[in-house]
Amino acid sequence: MEQKTNRLYFIDAMRAWAILMMLQGHFVDGLLDPVYRDPGNGLYSLWLYFRGITAPVFFTVSGFIFTYLLIRVPQTGFDNPRIKKGLKRGLQLLFIGYLLRLNLFGLFEGKLYSTFFLVDVLHCIGISIMTIIAVYLLTARLKKWLFPFSLLGITFVLFLFEPLYATWTYSAWPEAIANYLTRNNGSVFTIIPWVGYTALGGFLAVLFKRHLSNKNLYTRAIWLSLILGLSLVYFSSPFFYFFYELSGISLFKDIVTNNYLFIRLGDVLIVFAVFMLLRKSIIRPTLLRIGQNTLSIYIIHFVILYGSFTGLGLYRFFHQSLSPVMAISGAIAFMVVCSYAALTYDKHEATIKGRMHSIRRRVIVPFLRLYYAISQALILLQDRILRLFNTSKG
């Protein structure tokens, strides 16, 4: 089926899995009582490990999908229609990322709380998309292999030197900009190193696109992903420690001390292998639709859980107060509600947008015209009163 439609359905399924994992992860992490957070508990430890896989998979798949669409069209360079769409998408994600952190009550008081400037998943993916576009345009007229290997180089450099730049505070920079580079102010994600996963997804997309017609593509890709993934998980730390002992360069030892990037990269490749292996059995319409509507699901989950715009979310009322049974059952219900709401919106999107356009045309536009007319009348009235006052004075 993949080869006939040129659509990689296992990627949609993989993205659906990642967004559902993100939903339950955010719910449980935000609402589970700390007394139950015991790393010695096997189930909690397993949940914690899989929660750590979610973001790398989500970033990698996002880079994969965008790059695959970017290179699928015959046009190249600035003639590629995906360039304009990608830039628009990247800016849209940045706008939505900030919008979700906006507090209307504070805005009415003329305040922008510091949380508004924090950087999250949407910001990073938006920047990542624009980074991939920049690399694509810079290499468009050069050798074909330069684009994918430039993306791979970005991943390697960001992951390899993470122990160095992780200590930088950017204290002299404006906080709104520094938040893209450091977590010291409270940002959950930063473009370094997370752009690295998205760039890797772009690299994998190029490989898939170029070998899509090969009948042995999936067999080879599954084995290669498994071997590389398991090697990164179990042997990347010994590998870097060997180079530390050989060269004495402390950077390699620092990587071993907190080797989460390369290990998580191995986890991502293993997840890729699993979904490629199960690609024929996971093609379910609902699952694929969830994977194709992750942005809507993310927005809805942010509003319900964190209370975007009003601050009245589940996080405010049940923050770290639930028992495991309540947290698990609540997480399941949360995933169902967010997914159902997003899929319902997707089903009626054209109608909803049409009604919103009608409301804007019938209500908002006349209101703005009335507001403008009243403002002009008040300005004119003020001018006449001042003239009358000055005349009477004279």
TrEMBL record:
| Superkingdom of origin | Bacteria
Looking at the UniProt entry, the stretches that span the membrane are: 7-28, 48-71, 91-108, 114-138, 145-168, 188-208, 220-241, 261-278, 298-318, 324-343, 363-381
Q: What is this protein called?
A: DUF1624 domain-containing protein
The record lists the lineage as: Bacteria, Pseudomonadati, Bacteroidota, Flavobacteriia, Flavobacteriales
Q: Which residues form a coiled coil?
A: none
**Pfam families the record matches:** HGSNAT_cat
Q: Which UniProt keywords apply?
A: Membrane, Transmembrane, Transmembrane helix
Is Translocase set as a keyword in this record?
Answer: no
Q: Does the keyword S-adenosyl-L-methionine apply?
A: no
- Please list the residue ranges annotated as the Heparan-alpha-glucosaminide N-acetyltransferase catalytic domain: 7-218
Under the heading InterPro entries, the entry gives:
HGSNAT_cat
